[in-house]
Specification:
single chain, about 170 residues, mainly alpha, 2 domains, 2 strands, elongated
């Protein structure tokens, strides 16, 4: 039974991290944390971006949860779910690295999906990058992507209301 509970905690944490990532992307990265995130939306020559500092924040969260769950560190005061939450945060970080940095931005490998959900993820994220600056935008999640046609409509509405400045025509 403990194994089933641990698996449920890890899976729930991975799913919950998408909500955390969406919220932090929309309200932190495109808000007061724009200074770190800006270079992710601009062309640059270097391999690393300031935006990569957010990965360190995620790593710190995961490591902290492992520490909170570790009897070796906290002894009898250890909180056993912490280990499994830390593992879920780590798993989300790996998924993020493979999907966002690898598949979408092709930092680790070259693969252009021709169809299916992988193509939808790439299209949705390209639409996220269709705006100039931190205002407006769509598709702030990293693993779950809405229909690109709906996202295009939202971008057009933002442009028409003066909320977002688009880099290129979104047709």
């Amino acid at each position: 039974m403990d194994t089933v509970i641990a698996i449920v905690i890890v899976v729930a944490t991975v799913l919950g991290m998408e909500l955390v990532a969406w919220s932090s992307h929309k309200y932190v990265m495109h808000g007061f944390g724009w200074n770190w995130h800006r270079d992710h939306h601009e062309r640059h020559d270097g391999f690393f971006e300031k935006n990569d500092l957010y990965a360190l924040v995620g790593a710190a969260l995961s490591i902290s949860m492992f520490a909170i769950g570790s009897p070796l560190i906290l002894g009898a005061r250890a909180w056993w779910p912490g280990t499994w939450i830390g593992l879920g945060v780590l798993a989300y970080g790996v998924i993020y690295t493979l999907v966002h940095d690898g598949l979408v931005h092709q930092r680790w490998f070259r693969y252009v999906p021709r169809g299916g959900y992988a193509k939808r993820l790439v299209q949705a994220h390209k639409l996220h990058h269709a705006t100039q600056g931190k205002e407006g935008g769509v598709s702030f999640g990293f693993v779950f992507a809405r229909d690109p046609a709906v996202l295009k409509q939202e971008l057009k509405q933002q442009r028409d209301r003066g909320i977002a400045v688009l880099r290129e025509a979104v047709e």
